[in-house]
Specification:
The protein is 51% helix and 8% strand. It has helices at residues 2-5, 23-37, 40-55, 98-109, 122-137, 149-174, 189-205; strands at 64-66, 75-77, 83-86, 93-95, 110-111, 117-118. The chain has a two-stranded antiparallel sheet with strand order 1-4. A hairpin with a 5-residue loop joins strand 2 (75-77) and strand 3 (83-86). Helix 2 (23-37) packs antiparallel against helix 3 and helix 4 (98-109) crosses helix 6.
Length: 209
């Protein structure tokens, strides 16, 4: 992950991937999407996460190529366990790399859908955060990432908001009011609904809903 995030994108054309220069741009986009979805929880979650970011000292990092779905099912390894390829780039984009790390932390620490079980602790999440900082920037650079809590909340709010927007667009298609400018992604709608409820659980856990 650190190697992927270290790619220099400054002179690269990354279209058609969505690109956000910083967390402010990302939250502006999610705010727009939440309003479009007409989903009250999505709107409230994005507002709460924005307040969390504003209340914390979050250092800047340059945007990076993000996979957005790091887990072992998407990793192809050789017999020795060395990563050879990463598959399923459907949700890839260019954004703050801490979102990728937060996604990995959530998948590593919690199990279950809709109602999740915490099989770790903040100490475990902090360890992953520190390991990533060391792999990316070298030892003693943990402070370059800042606190992990805002990014865990943003990752959950992002999943909730996108899932709510997907559901809204699917309803528009079903009701014959689809807009060609707002296509429905290729997806399993039931899986999206489960992800949306899981994200609500995580946001409630940290007092964001």
């Amino acid at each position: 992950m650190a190697k992927l995030h270290s790619l220099d994108l400054s002179a690269r054309d990354t279209l058609p991937l969505p690109r956000f220069s910083n967390w402010q741009e990302h939250l502006e986009y999610l705010t727009m999407l939440a309003v479009e979805s007409e989903h009250e929880d999505a709107v409230n979650a994005v507002l709460a996460v924005q307040e969390l970011f504003q209340a914390n000292s979050v250092p800047d990092l340059p945007p990076a190529l993000c996979h957005y779905d790091w887990h072992l099912g998407n990793a192809l390894c050789d017999a020795s366990g060395n990563l050879q390829a990463l598959i399923d780039w459907e949700f890839a984009g260019v954004a703050d790399p801490r979102l990728d790390v937060a996604r990995f932390c959530r998948r590593d620490r919690f199990t279950g859908d809709v109602v999740c079980r915490d099989k770790g602790s903040d100490t475990d999440t902090e360890k992953i955060w520190e390991d990533y900082a060391t792999a990316r920037f070298g030892p003693g650079n943990r402070s370059r990432l800042g606190p992990f809590q805002p990014w865990m909340a943003l990752e959950a709010a992002q999943v909730l908001t996108i899932a709510a927007a997907v559901g809204h667009r699917a309803a528009c298609v079903q009701n014959g009011i689809a807009n060609d400018q707002r296509p429905v992604p290729r997806c399993d709608l039931m899986e999206w609904l489960e992800d949306m409820e899981s994200s609500k659980w995580h946001l409630r856990r940290v007092g964001m809903l």
